[in-house]
Amino acid sequence: EQAEIGLIGLGVMGSNLALNIAEKGNRIAVFNRTPARTGEFYEEAGSLKDNIVPCETIEDFVAAIRPPRPIIIMIKAGAPVDEQMALLEPHLQQNDIMIDAGNANFRDTMRRFDALKDSGLTFIGMGVSGGEEGARHGPSIMVGGTEASWKRVEKVLTSIAAQYHGEPCVAWLGENGAGHFVKTIHNGIEYADMQMIAEIYGILRDGLKMDAAEIAAVFAGWNRGRLNSYLIEITAKVLEAADPIGGRPIVDMILDKAGQKGTGKWSVIEAQNMGVPATAIEAAVAARSISALKDEREAAEKVLGLPAVPPLAVSDKAAFIKDLENALLAAKIGAYAQGFAVMAAASREFGWSLPMPTIAKIWRAGCIIRSQFLDEITTAFTRDPHVANLIVTPAFAAMVRETDGALRRVVSTAVLGGLPVPALAAALGYFDSYRRGRGTANIIQAQRDFFGAHGFDRIDGADSHHGPWGSGLGTGAA
Ligand code: NDP
User: Fold this and answer.
1) Going by C-beta distance under 8 Å and a sequence separation of 6 or more, which residues neighbour residue 79?
2) pLDDT per residue over 360-377, tens digit each?
3) Which residue owns the Cα nearest ligand 1 atom 16?
4) Which residue minimizes the CA distance to atom 30 of ligand 1?
5) Confidence of residue 478 (pLDDT cuts 50, 70, 90)
6) Quick one: which atom of ligand 1 is closest to the CA of 129?
7) Cβ of 32 below 6 Å from ligand 1
8) Is 102 in the pocket of ligand 1 (CB under 6 A)?
9) ipTM of the complex
10) By alpha-carbon position, which residue is closest to atom 13 of ligand 1?
11) In a 3-state reduction of DSSP, which class is residue 78?
12) CA separation (Å) from 212 to 53, 250, 252?
């Protein structure tokens, strides 16, 4: 019996995805560049062996799969994917489908898709979220490619995806790079979510001088409320964990230097390319970059010292912690609104027709940003799929009005206390500028016209395109 699907790359993600596929009753052929790993994987597969066809050569692997062959490539992103595709291509036939399931830059996906256009082969760029655990027991899956290729893999992918109250967290989102683009923005939002949590943690630790166990209790409590989400849940768990060496809270032993692999940065670059403000995500990416400057930060603290400010002015601790909860919710709304706005712009730019309610739906379970909150976003976008911004949907406008006061109090308290809250402040700045009909860009336009004769529109619609600047006009200086 031929396999329904193939998978190349038995690393952490690939192995778990293959076991998940086999467990759901799909026969799968597997291949790994280093054949020893294939044997090892097969031996560890236990009762799932019956559904797994381990292959040592590409020829055997391809022959084991039912045509048209869907082949998942789950290897290190970047050049390795191009190398693997080039090795695989000569063995494939008309309508076979190469599926890149790694964290590809969607621009690479677009390029790979185009390169195969006239070959008779097809390509799917597939975003997979949920880490190791998700891959094994149910990830969120974002698919980009032709509708025909999606039809070929729909059944298998639906069988392995996470479920939210019985609804599978997988969908075809559009042609070529759509799936990897949406995965990128998922990660951008994830960066913002994580950074905002880190800023709140900083206020609790450095402002309120709470220890890890006390902060864990705060997050655990929030996880039972409106902030209920995987990231809040694991934050509480992380804060509770003890260091095996010495027994102190493990978080207190971890170096404050964050890594990044590129998806956050890509989100911000693409947002900027399209002129979409994604300030909370930008702040989160920049915060990771600042975190990486550990030596410089330590040197700067010696030169500048910490801000010379009085301790945090908090008279009612319980009320302030309630404010922190609402502030986090408000800021989170800002970050998601920005992420969805970036996707809406990309949908127009790349001609994808990205289905916003569906994207929110397939993020409700399986992925890292999964939460109750995404169900509320699903409802809002289902009611109004073409709304300009999430924060002007009735439900979210009400939530912003209810919680932005807390965000304002928290940001100002933190700022006066000398604590950095760049992502929370970015979300607040976004609300405050987005909701203000009359902004301050009139002065920018005047300046631009003054030094560069760029011209401006008038509020009365009258037809004067330049200001009365006299000799300053048109000096041509940039
Ligand atoms: P790695 O990125 O470390 O990939 C390991 C696998 O890649 C191994 O099977 C390895 O084969 C193979 N490989 C590396 N280089 C090549 C090459 N040039 N040609 C062929 N095969 C190669 O492991 P992960 O499983 O963590 O990640 C896989 C992909 O999934 C990445 O794109 C990652 O960004 C993405 N991803 C990861 C998540 C995670 O939580 N880890 C979550 C979501 C996506 P060999 O055994 O021969 O070395």
Assistant:
1) none
2) 999 999 999 999 999 999
3) 80
4) 102
5) very low
6) 43
7) yes
8) yes
9) 0.97
10) 75
11) coil
12) 47, 9, 8
Residue 454 and residue 386 in one domain: no
Number of domains in the chain: 3
* Measured distance CA(229)–CA(207) in Å, rounded: 25
**133 within ligand 1 shell (Cβ under 6 A):** no
pLDDT tens track for 310-361: 989 899 999 999 999 999 999 999 999 999 999 999 999 999 999 999 999 9
- Judge whether 478 lies within some domain: no
* CATH number of the domain bearing residue 31: 3.40.50.720
44 CA to centre of own chain: 32
Of the residues 1, 43, 147, 190, only one is catalytic, namely 190
The answer to whether 26 touches 15, Cβ cutoff 8 Å, is: no
Please give the residue range of the domain that contains residue 417. Answer: 184-434
Q: Is 190 part of the annotated catalytic residue set?
A: yes
What residues are paired with 125 via a beta bridge?
A: 100, 144
Residue with CA at minimum distance from ligand 1 atom 12? 75
CA distance 298 to 300: 5
Which DSSP letter does residue 173 get? E
β partners of residue 144: 125, 174
Distance from the CA of 29 to the center of ligand 1, in angstroms? 17
Ligand 1 atom with least separation from CA of 34: 47
State whether 334 and 197 are in the same domain. yes
Ligand 1 neighbourhood includes 76 CB (under 6 angstroms): yes
With beta carbons less than 8 A apart as the criterion, state whether 411 and 199 touch.
Answer: no
Q: Are residues 257 and 374 in the same domain?
A: yes
Asked about 183 being catalytic, the answer comes back as: yes
Q: How many angstroms separate the most distant Cα atoms in the chain? A: 84
Enter the DSSP assignment of 126: E
